[in-house]
């Protein structure tokens, strides 16, 4: 069983739909590489040996928009440009966990879209579609979410007990290795599933943030403030770990090669321009992270402590901005283009 970590739904102040600028920057920064990868590598001739004139696209970890619609339209346009086939129809499957806010997603669907749309609830760490039914898979800012917190981190009697921290950044090598091991297990399931679903000659493009999540430590420091003030039991902080791991080129290459059903057509770190980072706009950055992380905190700490934690962290914006200027870390993301053998 995988654990679900949905983004904030609806369209309120801290909703993901209103606070996903960072994720949009990731997508915009990869558009040209995505286009080049599709034009160069998508094997249109062979893939339709296994299907009709319907081109099936899956968006893995779609959340609630609006970024996912921008990505899907871009992919459709590029495939049309490559195919020159006016009879080709497009079906987009929007996938996320069952408790994702699909209502908001579908209420926001562009009226002028050039594809048919449907939702597919379920974890992308397992099978979602019939064999050889998908031509193109896309995932942005999603695969770094682990299926669960590494079990070693939940036992206070082990050396992996991550005391005083909520993530592997700044933690011991034992903690880091536990995160790496969980990522590799999850990606083994992920690639085995996609290998069954994607037709030979089909493609998968993955985008993942690679840097910037040292900012998680600010949420951790706020939690420790609450501990020191007697508002929170320290053991609750020690047993809490954010279930995300940001893979390097080496990490991703290893899991792809182990699967052996995909060839790596392009893999590199890119450096998209980030207004939030460049301008040290800590307040907007923290609000963006709130939209992404709030449900994870609520699941562990409850509503009251979570609200206090995020409110206090946002109030630290000036302090965080000053830290950002001194410890400037250029926005960085991992781009991976794969082809089904």
TrEMBL record:
Gene Ontology MF, one: metal ion binding
Top-level taxon: Eukaryota
Keywords: Magnesium, Metal-binding, Methyltransferase, Transferase
GO annotation, biological process: methylation
Alphabetized InterPro entries for the sequence: MeTrfase_7, MeTrfase_capping, SAM-dependent_MTases_sf
Pfam families for this protein: Methyltransf_7
Annotated family: Belongs to the methyltransferase superfamily. Type-7 methyltransferase family.
Protein name according to UniProt: S-adenosylmethionine-dependent methyltransferase At5g38100
Organism per entry: Solanum lycopersicum (Tomato)
Upper classification of the organism: Eukaryota, Viridiplantae, Streptophyta, Embryophyta, Tracheophyta
Gene: LOC101245689
């Amino acid at each position: 069983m995988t654990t679900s970590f949905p983004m904030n739904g609806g369209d309120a102040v801290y909703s993901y739909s209103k606070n996903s600028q960072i994720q949009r920057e990731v997508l915009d920064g990869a558009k040209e590489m995505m286009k080049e990868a599709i034009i160069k590598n998508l094997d249109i001739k062979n893939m339709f040996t296994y299907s009709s004139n319907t081109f099936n696209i899956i968006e893995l970890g779609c959340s609630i928009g609006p970024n996912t619609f921008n990505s899907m339209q871009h992919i459709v346009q590029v495939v049309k440009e490559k195919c020159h086939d006016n009879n080709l129809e497009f079906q987009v499957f929007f996938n996320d966990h069952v408790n994702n806010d699909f209502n908001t997603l579908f209420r926001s669907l562009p009226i002028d879209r050039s594809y048919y749309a449907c939702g597919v609830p379920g974890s992308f760490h397992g099978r979602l579609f019939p064999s050889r039914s998908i031509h193109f898979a896309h995932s942005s800012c999603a695969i770094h979410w682990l299926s669960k917190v590494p079990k070693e981190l939940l036992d206070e009697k082990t050396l992996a007990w991550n005391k005083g921290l909520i993530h592997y950044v700044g933690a011991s090598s034992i903690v880091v290795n536990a995160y790496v091991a969980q990522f590799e297990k999850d990606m083994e399931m992920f690639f085995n599933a996609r290998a069954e679903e994607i037709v030979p000659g089909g493609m998968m493009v993955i985008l993942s943030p690679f840097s910037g999540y040292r900012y998680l430590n600010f949420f951790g420091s706020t939690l420790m403030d609450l501990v020191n003030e007697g508002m929170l039991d320290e053991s609750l902080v020690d047993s809490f770990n954010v279930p995300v791991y940001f893979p390097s080129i080496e990490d991703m290459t290893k899991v792809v090669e182990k699967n052996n059903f995909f060839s790596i057509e392009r893999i590199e770190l890119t450096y998209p321009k980030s207004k939030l980072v460049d301008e040290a706009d800590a307040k907007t950055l923290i609000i963006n992270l709130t939209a992404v992380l709030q449900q994870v905190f609520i699941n562990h700490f409850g509503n009251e402590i979570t609200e206090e934690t995020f409110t206090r962290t946002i109030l630290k914006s000036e302090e965080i901005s000053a830290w950002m200027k001194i410890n400037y870390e250029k926005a960085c993301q991992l781009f991976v283009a794969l082809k089904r053998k």
